Amino acid sequence: MKIGFDAKRAFHNNTGLGNYSRGLIHALAQFFPENEYLLFNPKPGRTHVFNEINTKEILPSGMFFKKFHSLWRSYGILNDLYREKIELFHGLSHEIPMHIQKTKIKSVVTIHDLITFRFPRQFSMFDAFMHQQKIKNACKHADMIIAISEQTKNDIIDYVGINPLKIKVCYQHCDTKFSIQKSDTEKKAVREKYGLPENYFLYVGSIIERKNLLRICEAMKINKSMSDMPLVVVGHGGKYKEMVQSFIQKNNLNEQVIFLSEKEEVKKDPDFISGIHLPELFQSATALIYPSEFEGFGIPVLEALWSGTPVITSSISCLPEAGGPDSYYVDPRSAKEIADAMMKLETDESRRKMMIATGKEYAMNFTPKKSAENIMNAYKALF
Fold first, then answer.
1. pLDDT above 70: residue 162
2. Which of 105, 179, 231, 332 holds its CA 20 to 30 A away from the CA of 119?
């Protein structure tokens, strides 16, 4: 079978949607080598490469679409799909080409979340509207919808009104580099490189309102008289980050919250930018703190479980799907619950060891092979 992918984010996005796209393409190419995988890339980019012999990059042809590559993704790409004799096209992040439903090419779209439907005020009016329209169009016209969690499936049904029989839940996997246990020497070297203490809590993710970093800082204020264990923050933000930093300043938490991504020497470090040392950062942490108010899946939770790092996360949204039976669940609206959980994992080594063992076991439900098999079964159901 000749399968095409919207590979914009696979080639150009270094975080969530890019990781999902790359991980899936690599897994399919490895475990189902009998197929051809054509990666439709709107513009040249060599940050990420695909070396499998059954993958092929396709760029826009003609000066017009080379210049207006966004139009190529939405319209011009159909001519290339015909030329390459694509049998199935997979939009990996909320979109499919316009009018593909009028062709004989089967189409699949992955919907990661409906955050712009749930929290439209956290986006500009234009961005929220455009994102909602793309999702509505893709869900209406795709032959099958892949939802990355049961939460996302339910949101597609509730907000877009799609028949549940059209939706298949296929969990994603995270980079297998997190499953490789680093030595104490390797972890110490990374801590020293970035000026980190031996023990710390870890936050990984964009610094935006729904991911709740401010509430974590409120929890640290509650625990201040009992604990001086710092929080290492890996991620970037805008106005909400400024609000968090203002709270930190007013409550004398500057020494306890380390914005690692903002250090000048870190910003220029290619190893940090590529994420090559994320496994050491996870595996050195006492726990990942991830009390997000809403996620499509919550991949940092899975990265932590693969790493052997205990997780404190939310009891709502899809986070219990990602965290499994033995992560520590809290009400994300309660700084007191978050504070209690942090103190529990800081002081209860037996609880941590249990969570590490059961977390690794649960993570085995999210291997690249299982992810590829579930997606391939979805493809085959269309023929």
1. yes
2. 231
In the DSSP assignment, the letter for residue 94 is S
184 within 8 A of 265, measured Cβ to Cβ: no
- On whether both 196 and 154 belong to a single domain, the answer is no
Do 99 and 188 belong to one domain? no
Structural domain boundaries enclosing 354: 176-366
Task: Report the C-alpha gap between 159 and 174 in whole angstroms.
Answer: 28
List the beta bridge partners of residue 329.
313
- pLDDT per residue as tens digits for the range 36-60: 999 999 998 767 888 899 999 999 9
User: From residue 162, how far is each of 151, 154, 283, 370 by CA, in Å?
Assistant: 14, 10, 41, 26
Give the chain's domain count.
2
- Check whether residue 361 and residue 372 sit in a common domain: no
With beta carbons less than 8 A apart as the criterion, state whether 18 and 44 touch.
no
Question: Which residue do the tokens 């990984």 mark?
Answer: 204
Distance CA 214, CA 273 (A): 24
Cβ atoms 172, 26 nearer than 8 A = no
The whole-angstrom distance between residue 343's C-alpha and the CA centroid of its chain comes to 27
